[in-house]
Amino acid sequence: MPDTMIKICGLKTPEAVDAAVDAGATHIGLVHFEPSPRHVSLNDAAKLRRRVPDSVKVVLLLVNMQPAPTGEALDAVQPDVVQFHGNETPEWLALVKEKTRYEVWKAWGLMNAQSLENVLAYESKVDRVLYDAPAKKLPGGNGVPLDWSLLREYHHRIAWGLAGGLTPENVVDAIRTTHAPLVDASSGLESAPGVKDIDRITAFCRAVREA
Ligand SMILES: O=C(O)c1ccccc1N[C@@H]1O[C@H](COP(=O)(O)O)[C@@H](O)[C@H]1O
Predict the structure, then answer these.
(1) pLDDT digit string (tens) for 98-135?
(2) In which pathway does it act (predicted)?
(3) Cβ atoms within 10 A of the Cβ of 57, count?
(4) Measured from the CB, is residue 40 less than 6 Å from ligand 1?
(5) DSSP 192-208
(6) Which residues on neighbouring strands pair with residue 109, listed in sequence order?
């Protein structure tokens, strides 16, 4: 089985970005969503983006943004991937995929077996689905794991990844249960909301490699 890809999300400082890259992250995520404690301005996101070597992909996370500001954000940051983490429609994401050079990911709050079927509306319209726990106060970044058993024997028709409450302590179990090709962690690697803990980033990447 190929190595599990690792996305470390919600990075706000050069130190945290460097730590994720050094620890072996394949993707780093920048959140541009003002209500989030992990929000970065487009200017700061562009600066952080420039620190990242070509071997690591940069994911810009947006939530329910209108088309014009979406274009402005993508032009400013020039990520490799755009992760849509709101109620964006399949039609809108298909248009972004068709008209831009960016990889398009859709976060999906996974509630039950039916919602695994419902996400197929995005098949061929996005490059990857990221399963997260259903939205709470924020649409994501809530540190809540989803029910991994839903994914245990599932035959996936869309490339996918696992998010939601992943930590250095539970990620081995998550990978062994779901066989996720990509794992994504954010709030589980923090000492306070929005403050990444470098040791937890390193421990998370080490745990994924040992799974
Ligand atoms: O991190 C946030 O604040 C956030 C805000 C709005 C949408 C998504 C957000 N985070 C993403 O949610 C998943 C799961 O995060 P967690 O590990 O449970 O904290 C992940 O992709 C985050 O980047």
Answers:
(1) 999 999 999 999 999 999 999 999 999 999 999 999 88
(2) Amino-acid biosynthesis; L-tryptophan biosynthesis; L-tryptophan from chorismate: step 3/5
(3) 17
(4) no
(5) ETTEE-HHHHHHHHHHH
(6) 132
Query: Tokens 């709030």 map to which residue?
Result: 187
* pLDDT tens digits, 28-53: 999 999 999 999 999 999 999 999 99
Residue partners of 119: CB distance under 8 A and separation at least 6: 106, 108, 110, 129, 158
* Sign of torsion over alpha carbons 109, 110, 114, 116: positive
The single-letter code of the amino acid at 199 is D
- Say which CATH topology domain 5-210 has: TIM Barrel (3.20.20)
The Å distance, Cα 185 to ligand 1 centre, comes to: 8
- Distance in Å, CA 117 to ligand 1 centroid: 23
Joined tokens for residue 14: 């050069």
Domain residues of the chain, as ranges?
5-210
pTM here is 0.96
